[in-house]
Amino acid sequence: MKIKTTLTTLCCAVLACTAFASTANAAKIGVSMPTQSLQRWNQDGHNLKDQLEAANHKVELLYAGDNDIPTQLSQIENLIAANCEVLVIAPIDGGSLTQVLQGAKEKGIPVVSYDRLIMNSDAVSYYATFDNYKVGQIQGNYIVDALKLKDDATSPKNIEFFTGSIDDNNVNFFWGGAIDVLQPYLDSGKLVCKSGQTKKEQVATQNWSTEEAQKRMENLISSVQYGPQGVKLDAVLSSNDSVANGVTNALVAEGYNKDNFPILTGQDCDKPSVKNIKRGLQTMSVFKDTRVLADQVVKMVNAIVDKKDVPVNDTTTYNNGTGVIPSYLCTPIVVTNSNLKEVLVDSGYYTEKEIK
Ligand code: BGC
Fold first, then answer.
1. What's the gap in Å between 230 CA and the centre of ligand 1?
2. pLDDT tens digit string along 171-212?
3. Which of 114, 141, 267, 313 could form a cystine bridge with 286, CB 3.0-4.6 A?
4. What is the pLDDT of residue 30?
5. CA 117 to chain centre
6. What pLDDT sits at residue 25?
7. What is the C-alpha to C-alpha distance for residues 332 and 197, in angstroms, rounded to an integer?
8. How far apart are CA 35 and CA 290, in angstroms?
């Protein structure tokens, strides 16, 4: 019922956007995305381009190879030189754009930070993202419920932690939301982290890399002796799907299967993870519908171009070091095997075949 309401809201949002779109003056919009090697950013870029073009804007969409910071810097420089009227940027390293964005500020080009916050730059006008703290809370609460940690009779459960790239400001929120939920159980001994690695810096994964996550999980398996016949691993908190995929690869290689798989969280509903959820090799993911985010960004860009009030719903949470950036936070949705068809297929996000 709740999901149906959400889906109806999503459909209405898309329709509302189309209606809104036609009122904007046409403008040249520069879009800079971090990498083409993760599914979500391909989807983000293309949804955004399509929706901006449907609103009559001219769009320059550029990908910085595979998370290549110098490429992103020079691409942004080019978008500024080409006199784009608004820039939409998802940074690789949130702290690396201060200097290049000085150029945007000097030319009076508004910058919308997309999904990840650009840090230490007063050129950033707005931020559009999902409620990232809530993403972490959803993952933490999922583990609490799945392991029945609230029950007094529950015996201690073993957990390991994985988060993302430390240069991504979102990690502070994903990790913060999850650990705020789980820390009390670590403190009470209901949750035990046998590796002792419970600090954000210890559990980070550079560039959100699947391979890095796989290596770290393999190391944990050998140092703690986790295994189907070894030390029981009850849960792995992973902040996203690309990292969860690495964890799954290491666990499957160690002999884990759907019957003994630990609870494993994720985020994005990337296709490999959705398939793993169907096969019992990941437990949940948090869906952040890239169509909804693109839709919101188009509304913001249109309002900027039309010099109208820009829609935001959060003016307290996201300080980028130069002050709070007015933000719009979209709502994330939990996806498990029991609702994935409804949320992902029935809403038209994936075809049945794509996630077979
Ligand atoms: C995004 C996540 C994504 C991760 C890796 C984060 O900034 O919010 O959705 O999984 O980057 O690309």
1. 33
2. 999 999 999 999 999 999 999 999 999 999 999 999 999 999
3. 267
4. 98
5. 12
6. 87
7. 27
8. 15
Atom 9 in ligand 1: residue holding the nearest Cα: 268
Give the containing element (helix H, strand E) for 84.
none
Q: In this structure, are residues 112 and 127 in contact, taking their beta carbons and an 8 Å threshold?
A: yes
Ligand 1 binding residues, C-beta < 6 A: 38, 40, 115-116, 164, 168, 170, 208, 240, 242, 267-268, 288
Query: What are the phi and psi torsion angles at 324 (to 5°)?
Result: -75, 135
Beta strands in the chain (DSSP E): 28-33, 58-63, 86-89, 111-114, 124-130, 157-162, 191-192, 235-238, 263-264, 285-287, 327-330, 333-335
- Cβ neighbourhood burial of 190 (10 Å; 0-12, 13-18, 19+): buried
Q: Which two tokens stand for residue 305?
A: 């171009």
Helix or strand (DSSP H, E) at 264: strand 263-264
Question: Ligand 1 centroid vs 240 CA: distance in angstroms?
Answer: 7
- Amino acid occupying residue 56: N
Inter-CA distances, 239 with 82, 177, 266, Å: 37, 10, 6
- Stretches where the chain sits below pLDDT 70 are 1-23
Token pair 């080409």 in the structure block, residue? 82
- Residue holding tokens 């879009």? 31
Going by the DSSP 8-state scheme, the letter that residue 276 receives in this structure is H
Q: Kindly tell me the sign of the dihedral angle through the C-alpha atoms of 331, 336, 342, 348.
A: positive
Question: Is the overall model pTM greater than 0.85, yes or no?
Answer: yes
Q: 208, 209, 243, 292: which to mutate for ligand 1, most atoms within 8 A of CB?
A: 208
- Which pLDDT score is estimated for 136? 98
Token pair 């936070």 is at which residue? 329
- Is residue 130 within 8 A of residue 293, CB to CB? The reply is yes
* Rg of the chain in Å (alpha carbons): 21
Instruction: Specify the pairing of strand 86-89 against strand 111-114.
Output: parallel
As beta bridge partners, residue 63 has: 33
Integer Cα distance of 33 and 322 in angstroms: 23
Contacts of 60 by beta carbon, 8 Å cutoff, 6+ apart: 28, 29, 30, 31, 79, 82, 84
